[in-house]
Amino acid sequence: MIPISLRLEGDDEQALDLLSSPNAIVARLRRRIKYHHKSVGSFAWRDSIDHSQLAVWWPSTEQSEQRGVRYVNGELHLRADIKPTSAMAHFRIEVR
Predict the structure, then answer these.
(1) Are strands 2-9 and 86-88 parallel, antiparallel or unpaired?
(2) Tens digit of each residue's pLDDT (9 = 90 or more) over 54-83
(3) Which 8-state DSSP code applies to residue 40?
(4) For 22, 52, 87, 90, which has the most beta carbons within 10 A of its beta carbon?
(5) Alpha helices in 1-96 (DSSP H)
(6) What is the pTM of this model?
(7) Biggest CA-to-CA distance, the chain
């Protein structure tokens, strides 16, 4: 699990209320596996992309004394077997 905290700022209070709604925010990690694949007569990169589950959000208990500021907290759940970003020779994993 990765904890997430967002601070949203703006002059339009109505827009901030809409954007800070837990249902309005979409976030997830993207994992890209890239490797060289050798087939008859060619040597090309192959790509595989998958995504984590969507983050879960809730209104923050932290309140700002400033107008035009909202806080939202959340968490991103990851599979236990996910590997970190790494690269070696003709194989690469990117997590963003």
Answers:
(1) unpaired
(2) 899 998 887 767 788 999 999 998 888 777
(3) T
(4) 52
(5) 13-19
(6) 0.67
(7) 66
